[in-house]
Amino acid sequence: GNSVTQMEGPVTLSEEAFLTINCTYTATGYPSLFWYVQYPGEGLQLLLKATKADDKGSNKGFEATYRKETTSFHLEKGSVQVSDSAVYFCALRQTRNSGNTPLVFGKGTRLSVIA
Amino acid sequence: DSGVTQTPKHLITATGQRVTLRCSPRSGDLSVYWYQQSLDQGLQFLIQYYNGEERAKGNILERFSAQQFPDLHSELNLSSLELGDSALYFCASDPVGSYNEQFFGPGTRLTVL
Question: How many Cβ atoms are within 10 Å of A42's Cβ, its own excluded?
C-alpha cells in the first residue's frame, strides 16, 4: 500500500539556519505530494504541493521538489525563523479517475527554532 | 480560516460513553474526510464521504461510525469510548479533482477519562 516516511524529530535549529526535512514515499503510479504544517494548538495548513515529477512547490521560503527517481519530496528552507516552529507533515494522495482520495501522512517532524 | 468548521472544540467524557463530532465542509465541497491524530499512531485516515455516500474506509474501529447529511455536513459517532480513543479528530474537505489539497478544520480534542 501507499506510505510516507519522514525523518524523526524533534529538530532544533538556531534562527537563520538551513532546514532540511527528509520525506520518501511508496506508491503506485504518480501520486500528488504535499507538505502540511501544524502550528501549536492549530489545525493543519497546506504549506506547499507538487502534482507531477520534477515539479517544485514553494511557499513562505520553503521549497520541495517531486523526485520520482528517488521517490522523495524533501522540505528545505534557507533561513528559518522562530515563527517556523511547528510540526511538519509530508503526505501523498493517489490520483484516481473515479474521484478524490484520502491523504496518507508521514508521522510528522517537530521543528523548534531558537533565537 | 480554511472554511471547514468543526464542533465542539473540546470534549471531555468518560469511558463507555458515546459522543458525536460535527463537521461542515467548505462551501461547494462534496467530499468530507475524517482523520484521527494521536501521539502513538500519528495522523490516520478514518473514513470519507462524497455527496452523502461512503467512499472510502481507513483504520476506523467498528465502535465508530459516520454519516454525511443532505446539506453535506458530516457527523462522526464514537461509542463505547476507551482511554485510547483520546485524540484530536480532524475533518477535511476538498473540491473535485485528486490533485487538489484538502482543507482541514480546527479539530475536536477528545479526552476520555
Answer: 12
Does A41 contact B at CB distance below 8 Å?
no
Partner-chain contact B98 A96, CB within 8 Å: yes
Give the chain B residue whose CA is nearest to the CA of A46.
Answer: B101
Q: Choose, out of B7, B30, B90, B104, the residue to mutate when testing the contact with A (most A CBs < 10 Å).
A: B104
Residue B98 grid coordinates? 485528486
Residues 6 or more apart whose CB falls under 8 angstroms from that of B106 comprise A42, A43, B5, B6, B9
Question: Does residue B44 contact residue A88 with C-beta atoms inside 8 Å?
Answer: no
Are A34 and B2 a contacting pair at CB < 8 A? no
Among the partner residues B42, B98, B107, nearest to A101 by beta-carbon distance: B98
What pLDDT, in 10s, does the model give residues A30-77? Answer: 899 999 999 988 899 999 999 999 999 999 999 999 999 999 999 999
| SS3 of residue A52 by DSSP | coil
Q: What pLDDT was estimated at residue A42?
A: 87
Single-letter amino acid code for the residue at B4: V
SS (HEC) of B94-109:
ECCCCCCCCEECCCEE
Say if residues B3 and B24 touch (Cβ distance below 8 Å).
no
Collapse the DSSP code of A82 into the 3-class scheme (helix H, G, I; strand E, B; otherwise coil) and give the result.
helix
DSSP state, A67?
Answer: B
SS3 B45: strand
